[in-house]
Design a protein that fits this description.
This protein is mainly beta. It has one helix and seven strands. It has one domain: Roll (SH3 type barrels), CATH 2.30.30.30. Strands 6-5-4-3-7 form a five-stranded antiparallel beta sheet, with no helix packed on it. It has a two-stranded antiparallel ribbon with strand order 1-2. It comes from Symbiodinium natans. Keywords: Ribonucleoprotein, Ribosomal protein. Belongs to the universal ribosomal protein uL24 family.
């Protein structure tokens, strides 16, 4: 599962997208939860979704449930070390 890079990171690393992993910091760029930032808490490979902390909805009993986000709608934040094998081309 990969997420697209921002334009400045794209020119810096010459790569369009990098794999998303747990504990990566991302910003959601599309949809109802856009402009929210957080850490990836879970990568749900079967449904091709990621869960980001502080992106939740409350159930009827008040229990918070994480909202699944498609990885193409999230961008890794620029201050973090990106996956090294993504740039080995």
């Amino acid at each position: 599962m990969s997420a697209p890079l921002s334009k400045d990171l794209r020119t810096k690393y010459n790569v369009r997208a990098v794999p998303i992993r747990r504990d990566d910091e991302v910003r959601i760029v599309r949809g109802h939860y856009n402009d929210r930032e957080g850490k990836v808490t879970q990568v749900y490979r079967k449904k091709f979704r990621i869960h980001v902390e502080r992106v939740t909805r409350d159930k009827a009993n008040g229990q918070p449930v994480p909202i699944p986000i498609h990885p193409s709608k999230a961008q890794p934040l620029p201050g973090l070390p990106l996956c090294s094998f993504a740039f080995s081309r």
